Amino acid sequence: MGVAKPATQRPRLPGVGRLGLVEPTAQADLDTLGWNTDAHVELLWSLSRAPDADTALKAIVRLSEALGPGWAELDGELLTDRSLRGRLFAVLGSSLALGDHLVANLDSWRLLAGNVKLPYPQELREMFADQADRVDGATAAIPPLRTLYRDRLLVLAALDVASTVENEPVLPFSVVGEHLSDLADAALAAALRVVTASVCGDQPAPALSVIAMGKCGAQELNYVSDVDVIFVTDDGSHSSLALATRIAGEMMRLASEAFFEVDAALRPEGKQGQLVRTLDSHIAYYERWAKTWEFQALLKARPAAGDMELGNRYTEALMPMVWTASEREDFVPEVQAMRRRVEELVPAGVRTREIKLGSGGLRDVEFAVQLLQLVHGRNDESLHVASTVNALAALGDGGYIGRDDAANMTASYEFLRLLEHRLQLQRLKRTHMLPEADDEESMRWLARAAHMRPDGRHDALGVLREELKRQNHRVSRLHAKLFYQPLLESVGQASLGLSDVMSTDAAERQLAALGYEGPQSALTHLAALTGSSGRRGRVQQVLLPTLLDWLSDTPDPDAGLLAYRRISDELAEQRWYLATLRDEGAVAKRLMHVLGTSAYVPELLMRAPEVIQLYADGPNGPKLCDVDTESFAKSLVASAARHADPMRAIAAARSLRRRELARIASADLLGMLDVTAVCKQLTLVWVAVLQAALDAVIRANSPDGKAPARIAVIGMGRLGGGELGYGSDADVMFVCEPHAGVEESTAVKWSTTVAEQVRARLGTPSADPPLEVDANLRPEGRSGPLVRTLASYEAYYTQWAQAWEVQALLRAHRVAGDLELGERFLLMIDKTRYPAGGVSPETVREIRRIKARVDAERLPRGADPNTHTKLGRGGLADIEWTVQLLQLRFAHKIPALHTTSTLETLNAIGAAELIAEGDIELLREAWLTATRARNALVLVRGKPTDQLPGPGKLLTAVAVAAGWPGGDGGEFLDNYLRVTRRAKAVVLRVFGG
């Protein structure tokens, strides 16, 4: 008896859940299609592999309804033609727009059946030319040309995405970009053909060449992109030029309606320039007027349609200019401005989603590659290529970037372009924006459309997120390495005679193009930094590509690199230093900004390097802002008090002052403190140093521990107003009072000795910013005694006070020494500076006379009165004298005016409605603007100065240090002139009466 054979196992139909279908109507849709038999198992599994199976299924249902009886043919083909199935399901699951196209054009699905290949460029041109010849007029041409263009997009997209469903070959990125560019060429040629026939009829058409620019010119076009073009003709006669312009304009309109947006904004003078120019006119423009970005755009210029011979003459004439653009005088600042402009185009909230313009995005790659081509292309014709991918390969072959870096950057670039293509395919809309991070469905669709597969640890969505993070990080890191790693290799290995190392000339050329004015010195610094054996040299090799990139964005990369070398040499034995720069990216970036902007801070950091550690972020924000300056001031005084020797006490105070100045200035340069906070903190530091020095000198001059007198220091000017800047001296007066039983003469003599020693010891020259104590505002000025008793001051001010002395007292405030004595001094002078009944008309006239004399005589020879921050038009003196005159006139009636701060006084003036609120705002803005500019001048130059420089690198540095958005020196200066001009008008009206 034989054994029964088991029945053949029948394939089981998968449920909708296993197919990845989540729409409630999915099962009903499958039943409508009749896809519910055993014969459809393989077909259903193919559907499940579509990037969005639900979207693909809905499109199939719509297509079946539209086809009616014709559905049976397609249904049968899907069962037998695996390639058709893979292409159709993949494209319908990837693109809503192409699904709509298939429903509207019911025969187009046949283009995806059988052995499908992409046509050659000439075949494409012939297809579009044939279609163009079959229509009569531009309007009639649009629908059939649009259908043909969408059909060809459909075929390309289907081949591009088919591997997501079936094991179809993956189309290389370069093939997709080239075919899209070929398709654009054919479409432009067809549009030109239609329009020329319509406009010219039987008369001869003018020679007209369409030059493709941008991605189309480079043959790396997107699915949806503006196609950038330039139009060239060879006949400059009025009639011919007018006819060519009409043809070009109508061709753009037709192409934009039928295919894609056509943009001619890259032409000379942009949208304001002529749409069509002769070749000679183009040449003249680029020789005389073109900007660096225009030569960068020409890197990708290519004849695409029309008169190809004329187009070739265009590129032959202009390309030599492209390869000399890097030698232009304004090349470096224009390149830096372009980089900043790109970064500013992207709102901060979407930078992580922007795959084109965001950090680590496509534009980073393209900009870096094009810049390197411009720098080295004059000497190396192998770099004369348009495609980004080809250029990366050529740069690697030429030793301008590392071969591994070129390969990695190419892989990252192609990955990001793949995502860009998939996002655009969905609705055939121009976009570079990733879905929101919490939109998991959209992200999951993108992952599947971009060939992401589960890897054992993550599903497709998780793989995409990890890959995005990795690729963005790699692009950001390689962006710096592309520029600088070969430079480091050249200084380290050029002596070995290796052929694949960048030559010294090429290295200098590249550094110059990146903003280094002394490339030879820069290479010397790089050699010194990386030449150390052991750990230091290795860490510098890793750090420097990124540090140099950050430095190149600063106003003075050369000075920044020198400062970095000096600090690195000084801290060579401090392990924390390089470890901090390596592990704390924020510290390194902030340090490079400071070193490349300021001459003031690097000198402080050399002697107070521990401040660098405060550049890191803490739990509550940057550590630079965590310090309480008032508490610091108390600790400075206490630290100095531990030393009996006054010189050692003052040295301790200087050391802590140095550290605090470095902290305040660093926070200021990094935009972490506003100008009023800077002035307040600088004042607190000065007051603490004065107190520490006074205490130390008193101790040294009181052997038995008993001083013969009390002494107080009265702050005047900016010190009294709490408005010190980096370059301010300390204007003071000293007042004393004998202790019981001590002769007044003895007390004054002792106090004078103390005051003189404080001034002398603080004024001792050192490497730190100076500590000048100026007592020239005392009664009788330099001719008067340095110290007086309270009674002597009272007698003098009651009987002899002049108008300028009364005005100076408006800013008097006790700052150091015996605070009770200082308070009594202030109460005593109140009746002089705020006299009952106000000051006399004669005093007001005298103040105005003195101001006129100051304006005429005090401005330094050669200074520009429009840009002198202190004595210039609408500058600090103008604002402060105006405010002080109003105090003199009205403080006896308005107690709120009894303040030494300029800004607080302005607020009180406004509250009392002494002048219009609009005028108050103009004066306040001018004071803040001038103070900010004056501080920035010291930070940049490293020494006190009041004169803004003219246009150039120094002005740009001042703009950056002052926190001007974008760091444009010209805009900063224009704003300064505008603000101070308006303030001067108020000063003339209010101060002049």
Helices, strands, pairings?
Elements: H1 26-33, H2 41-48, H3 53-67, H4 71-80, H5 82-94, H6 96-104, H7 121-133, H8 138-161, H9 173-200, E1 208-212, H10 214-217, E2 227-233, H11 238-258, E3 262-263, E4 276-278, H12 279-288, H13 292-298, E5 302-306, H14 308-322, H15 331-345, H16 362-376, H17 388-397, H18 403-427, H19 440-449, H20 460-493, H21 504-513, H22 519-530, H23 535-552, H24 557-570, H25 575-583, H26 585-595, H27 600-607, E6 617-618, E7 621-622, H28 629-641, H29 646-669, H30 675-700, E8 709-715, H31 717-721, E9 730-738, H32 744-762, E10 773-774, E11 787-789, H33 790-799, H34 803-809, E12 813-817, H35 819-833, H36 841-857, H37 876-890, H38 902-911, H39 917-941, H40 953-961, H41 969-990
Parallel strand pairs: 2-3, 2-4, 9-10, 9-11
Antiparallel strand pairs: 1-2, 1-5, 6-7, 8-9, 8-12
